[in-house]
């Protein structure tokens, strides 16, 4: 039985093998492989260039340390007293102190053009105020008056406006204010107040005008009108709405005599022989050489003439260049800032009565635009220091206080240099014992010596920080 099952199993396997063989495709003929050609290796060529050496990487840039900021403050102090000792002063109109500088006409030139009857040089001049009739009749002769100038419309510090004499020979406090007219010889130079002259008969009587039946009123354009003496009380000289100085016309009442210039007795000419009294009135604002002519001169009204040192030369000698300038009072600390262009045109004045000041003066400086009792002048990087007399500052300046006042730069030590070149370095910690002061002889400024306590640093000129 076992043999029978084994034979059946064998038959089944054989049949399955045959079935599988019948369903498979016949194998394709494989493609012929291409012949492989083996080339001989190319010989290795030597490199044409030497290989570059490998560079080391560049180091990262190291940031440089920022420089320490320079300490703030001035780096030079110059003693003005010592600096100017061997300098020459200037004493001229350019160095005049505290004047009003006014546009002016020279009186001598104006009188020469306009006076028909020129006075003698020694003829007395009388100047009368229109406000109260006050008369100054002894200050000037015709000759001295001709040396002066005249300026119109000066306004004083109280608001008063009037015409004034100007020039070096005219004292400010010796001047008739509200000047109405000048009388000299046969001439009257008439000034015109804002309200004018209302009644010409009264004016003629006041000035003692030469008597006549009529008078010629002559305008700047030579137009002339004859006015009877009887009509003078109806005539006036006035400022018109247009600003011209005119006179009343009797012939044409609706019109005025524009820019009235001269008034003379009828038919009087330059060639006439003058009679007793005033023979000609010259209306000064309309005079030939004044009307429509810009004042050619800039003359002083008041002020004092001092010997002084030009600021520009002082700064040059001190080696100071600057774009700013200010002054500090040693009395009360008042500070005045200068316009630098003006400052470079003015003068340092040390030649005062008590020698206790170092103020600026000069024609370029507006009156009162300065620091009186100036002790220090401060610039961009330097200072000029003036040491006043012992009557106001017996011990001079304490150097630490002075440094603080001017803003001196802080340093470990400072070099004190004398006019003869001698120098001493003084540590900052010793400055409390140092002063600069007028010496015992009163002829110079010295400083305390730390190295030689029994002596002083004579004629101290400059102090600078030691680097």
Task: Give a structural overview.
This protein has 467 residues and is α+β, with helices and mostly antiparallel strands. The chain has 8 helices and 32 strands. The chain has helices at residues 2-23, 80-83, 107-114, 142-146, 200-207, 311-318, 340-343, 399-406, and strands spanning 77-79, 96-97, 100-106, 126-129, 135-136, 149-155, 161-166, 179-184, 187-190, 214-219, 224-228, 237-239, 245-248, 256-257, 260-265, 280-283, 297-301, 304-305, 309-310, 326-329, 335-337, 347-349, 359-361, 374-378, 383-385, 397-398, 413-418, 423-427, 435-438, 445-448, 456-457, 460-465. The protein is elongated, with a radius of gyration of 52 Å. The chain starts with a helix and ends with a strand. Mean pLDDT is 88; it is low at 1-44.
Largest sheet: 8 strands, mixed
Strand order of the largest sheet: 21-20-24-25-1-32-27-28
Which spans of ≥5 residues are poorly predicted at pLDDT below 50?
A: 1-44
What is the 3D form?
Answer: elongated
Structural class: alpha+beta
Question: Brief overview, please?
Answer:
This protein has helices spanning 2-23, 80-83, 107-114, 142-146, 200-207, 311-318, 340-343, 399-406; strands at residues 77-79, 96-97, 100-106, 126-129, 135-136, 149-155, 161-166, 179-184, 187-190, 214-219, 224-228, 237-239, 245-248, 256-257, 260-265, 280-283, 297-301, 304-305, 309-310, 326-329, 335-337, 347-349, 359-361, 374-378, 383-385, 397-398, 413-418, 423-427, 435-438, 445-448, 456-457, 460-465. The protein is an alpha+beta fold and 467 residues long.
